[in-house]
Amino acid sequence: MTKRKQIVAGNWKMNMDYEQGRDLTKAVIDGLQPSDALVILGTPFIHLRNVASIIKDISNLKLAAQNCHQEESGAYTGEVSASMLKSCGVEYVILGHSERREYFGEKDELIAKKIDAVLGQGMEPIYCCGEKLDVRESGKQNELVAEQVKTALFHLSAEDLQKVVIAYEPVWAIGTGKTASPAQAQEMHAHIRSLIRDQYGAEIADSITILYGGSVKPGNAKELFANPDVDGGLIGGASLKAADFNAIVDSF
């Protein structure tokens, strides 16, 4: 099987003022142990340039933005383009997070355009997908996630798809303290990989990194990451505490 990247990505969301973000970045660096895992810090826009300068000499520590606009430039007050992110040293962009879907009405047709914009600038999208609680309780989670993945990603060439990191985040487990069981996480990750296998073939499917997100903590990370199709995590609340975040990285 193709060796896949193991990734722990932190999503700070709308937290940390400028000084707090600087201090958190330095604390993460101070606590990092040697690891084969790639570590990504997903920060608000105000931190991007400063964090990029702090981490520039650390080979396994990368920078992500939390969103971008789908257009290259124009009269879109308050928005940030992929090329602007690129100029700040960003290498990854989180797209399709459930909070963007819920609070800003983003649909996969729009997210697909954002993915194209990010890839066009030589950066890598972290594409988020996942179901709400009512969908899980109705047993239709596989159908929903399949529709999300197909709409957002299946227009891509095999070459471009291999540059995408997928993050499965059951919405009912984000910030709620609830976590999908290791078996539930593995089942959905295997389902996502099977969708890619059917469309692009086994070699491509086996090369795609799929992360789990949803109340990942130091206490459950190792068990989650031990699943064969779970390649790491997209970490929310625990990424705001350097000790917790580094402990999750150490779970590998």
UniProtKB/TrEMBL annotation:
Enzyme class, spelled out: isomerase
CDD domains: TIM
Superkingdom of the organism of origin: Bacteria
Upper taxonomic lineage: Bacteria, Pseudomonadati, Bacteroidota, Saprospiria, Saprospirales
Keywords: Cytoplasm, Gluconeogenesis, Glycolysis, Isomerase
A GO term, aspect molecular function: triose-phosphate isomerase activity
Keyword RNA-binding: no
Reaction catalysed by this enzyme: D-glyceraldehyde 3-phosphate = dihydroxyacetone phosphate
Family statement drawn from the similarity comment of this UniProt entry: Belongs to the triosephosphate isomerase family.
Species name: Phaeodactylibacter xiamenensis
Pathway of action: Carbohydrate biosynthesis; gluconeogenesis; Carbohydrate degradation; glycolysis; D-glyceraldehyde 3-phosphate from glycerone phosphate: step 1/1
Chain's role: Involved in the gluconeogenesis. Catalyzes stereospecifically the conversion of dihydroxyacetone phosphate (DHAP) to D-glyceraldehyde-3-phosphate (G3P).
GO biological process: gluconeogenesis; glyceraldehyde-3-phosphate biosynthetic process; glycerol catabolic process; glycolytic process
InterPro entries from the UniProt entry: Aldolase_TIM, TIM_sf, TrioseP_Isoase_bac/euk, Triosephosphate_isomerase, Triosephosphate_isomerase_AS
Assembly: Homodimer.
HAMAP family: TIM_B (MF_00147_B)
Gene3D superfamilies in UniProt: Aldolase class I
PROSITE patterns membership: TIM_1, TIM_2
Subcellular location: Cytoplasm
Protein name: Triosephosphate isomerase
Pfam families linked to this entry: TIM
Binding residues for substrate: N11, W12, K13, G175, S215, G236, G237
GO cellular component terms, semicolon-separated: cytosol
Cross-referenced SUPFAM superfamilies: Triosephosphate isomerase (TIM)
Catalytic residues (positions): H97 (electrophile), E169 (proton acceptor)
Gene name linked to the record: tpiA
Enzyme Commission number, as recorded: 5.3.1.1
